[in-house]
Structures are given as C-alpha cells and as structure tokens.
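Lecture notes, unit on binding sites. The following record was shown on slide 14. It pairs a sequence with nicotinamide-adenine-dinucleotide.
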Amino acid sequence: MLIEFNDQVVVVSGAGRGIGRTIAERFLAEGATVFALDLAFGAADDGAAPTSADRFVELVCDVSDPASVRSAIATIVERAGRIDVLVNNAGINVEGTIDTLDPDRWRRCFDVNVGGVFLMSQAVIPTMRAQRSGRIVNAASFAAIVPSVGSAAYAASKAAVVQFTRVLAGELGPWGVTVNAYAPGMVPTAMNGFADMDDAAQARLLDTLSLRRWETADDVADVVCFLASRAAGYVTGALIDVSGGKFATQIPAKAYEIAATTD
Ligand code: NAD
C-alpha cells in the first residue's frame, strides 16, 4: 500500500482542534508517530476528543514565534530522530473590508498564515535535507483562488502561501523533498460561521459547489495524506483544489435542477 505511514514521524501545526486535529488523528490511524502542535490544548469548547496513544504527542507551539518554533522542532528531532512529514495547517481568519481592516489584525494574519509556514518549514528543512526525503504540505484556501469581499488579509495571506510553496518546491527538489499546498473550500469549523448561518445563507453558499454539501475535515485529511504519501512522490509545487468543485462551473446549482427531473 502506498498510503500508510508506519514508522514515519509527522508534525501537524494547529492540531488542537478543527481540521488540524482530524489530520493529526488520521496520520495516527495510518501508523505514524504524530507531533500535534498548537497554542493550547484541551479548551473546554474546542470539540476535540482527547487522543491517548504512545505515538501521539501534543506540544505547545506558536508558529508565528521563531523561538517557539525552534524549541518545538528541536524537541521533536531529539525525541523522534527524524521528521518525514510537516503539515502547516495552523491558520487564522481575519475579516474586514478595506475601511475596517485593523493594521494589527492584518499583520497578525500574515505572521501566522505566512510567517508560520515559513518558520516551520525553515526549522524542519535541515532534518529533511539530511534524510534526503520529506514532505511539506501547506494549508492554502479556496480564497487563494477566488477571494470573497472582506477577505483581503486572509486571501492575500493564503495566496502568499501558494507562491511560497512553489518557490520551496524548487529549492528542495535536489534533496527529494516535495512541497505542496491544498485549498479547502468550506468546512464548518470554529473558524467560520457556516454552521450557524440561516438556511437561506447556507443554501446560497452550497449553490456554488458542484458537490453540493459542506466539506468535512476528513475530505481534507484524505488529500493531505495523499500529498504526504509515497503515492504522491512525483507531485511537487502543486496547489490541489479540494473544494467540492466550487465555481468549477458558473452556476452548478443548475445541474441539481436538471438532476431533479432526470432518472
Ligand atoms: P480552526 O480555527 O478550527 O483551527 C485552527 C487551529 O490553528 C486552532 O487550533 C488554533 O489554535 C491554531 N492556531 C492558530 N494560530 C496559531 C499559532 N500562531 N500557532 C499554532 N497554532 C495556531 O480552523 P480550521 O477551520 O480547522 O482551519 C485549519 C486550516 O485550514 C487553516 O489554515 C485555514 O485557513 C484552512 N482553511 C480552512 C477552511 C475552512 O472552511 N474551515 C477553508 C480553507 C482553508
């Protein structure tokens, strides 16, 4: 089997809750030793079930803080001796139109979403180079492909992640390290209010999708595991759209109208 991670060491940032938690637990289920990094763990409202396994280690780490990142990666290398996969999942959403965007929030968005990917990658690269192998998988967003009104900070930061991914793929090719990004569409999590919207607002958003349902964290974990696996050995510098076909056609809802009248 090409998608399994026995004896591999996987680092997932932002793995205290949400999509990152699901990704970390998936790698655990696929046999990896997982280091889950986040600002904090076990908040009463985070919805994450506790994970107990010898191969699952939670480390507090702020990906925007160089000292915190250095310390976390040094701990992992000391304990595990190698790093096969880095998933840069940690990210924050900052909303606001040009008149309302607060400069400090703009900076924080870039510090976490872009700076975090940069610092984490820089920290693991010496280990991956020495191994002459490794996988770096970065969370972009559909906002990097088609942004929404009010998403200037977030969408620009995720577009930066995509270009960073391409540059790094070029720089690390000689060591057999691949670097890819993925673009989820709409996964209801604490980061967004999708699940709390009224039915009409939800329908408006779902009408943008060819696969007309909310995305799950498992949908994302499937793609991340593929990109991290041996099956994706010849994929690098790519942005994989995992958005359920958002805007793949102009009015995807029309297909559902037709389907309703078709056997
Ligand atoms: P979430 O808010 O539920 O989880 C994000 C996690 O990242 C949290 O546990 C948070 O504590 C952690 N985090 C934030 N700042 C951090 C920092 N400085 N250092 C370490 N950890 C930090 O969000 P989510 O919906 O699970 O999103 C995960 C990733 O997927 C993000 O990068 C997000 O931009 C991306 N994404 C999500 C969606 C979606 O629909 N949910 C769509 C596109 C992209």
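Take-home: The beta strands are 9-13, 33-38, 56-60, 85-88, 134-139, 177-184, 239-242.
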